[in-house]
Amino acid sequence: MTSIASGTVPTTRSTVCFGKIPKSATFLSMLHRASSSSSSSPRMLLLLSSSSSSAKSAKILNSNNGSSISSSPKPFRPVMQWQDVTRVKMVVDAPASVAYKLYADREMFPKWMPFLSSVEAKEGSPDLSRYLVKLESFGQNIEYHFLAKNLQPIPDRKIHWRSIEGFENRGSVRFFPRGPSSCLVEISFSYEVPNAFAPVAFAMKPFMEKLIRGGLQRFATFVKTI
């Protein structure tokens, strides 16, 4: 791989170092090429300040007359707003009670979610689970972990969680009976995009949906072996 990023994803409560982070130069170049291809409007070049100051401003330079317009400074944000992954649904050949029992055992997740290297219940606190994630995305090998609290479940109907340390996320898995031997499994997932991945934030949602859908498809296959 071209580079490796390793560590806990930065949040407002944690400090982290990544080995190498995707730069926004490519994205800005795309904007420049797109704007320069139009003959009906002056070419616009977006300049982003690379200063580490908490107040960053952007300038738009009109290449025709050299004039510039400065936007109002905005405070630096360590993370972006919450993004919701569209609910992923699939009918599986197993009763809702069986599917629920498998998902309720968090340590089983890696069997159908290969991007989860491990999930371990915290000793002495069964409602807490530590997740280790390893995956390749956007030209990077990414590894990070987070601690999640398992919220009050509804037996045979719903499990849900929220992170309390590390990568900010929350989600749920619901189970809807479709007869005596099948059920509909629905996964919802929300997360905050770390500032380090802001340049590719537009690509993260379909990427996360693909990961979750792939995991659910593997679960549908796995449950047939039970």
Automatic annotation (TrEMBL):
Sequence ranges assigned to domain Coenzyme Q-binding protein COQ10 START in this UniProt record: 92-219
PANTHER family cross-referenced by the UniProt entry: POLYKETIDE CYCLASE/DEHYDRASE AND LIPID TRANSPORT SUPERFAMILY PROTEIN, POLYKETIDE CYCLASE_DEHYDRASE AND LIPID TRANSPORT SUPERFAMILY PROTEIN
Native source species: Arabidopsis lyrata subsp. lyrata (Lyre-leaved rock-cress)
Alphabetized SUPFAM superfamilies for the sequence: Bet v1-like
Source organism phylogeny: Eukaryota, Viridiplantae, Streptophyta, Embryophyta, Tracheophyta
InterPro entries assigned to the protein according to its UniProt record, in alphabetical order: COQ10_START (IPR005031), ORF3 (IPR047137), START-like_dom_sf (IPR023393)
UniProt name for this protein: Coenzyme Q-binding protein COQ10 START domain-containing protein
Pfam families: Polyketide_cyc (PF03364)
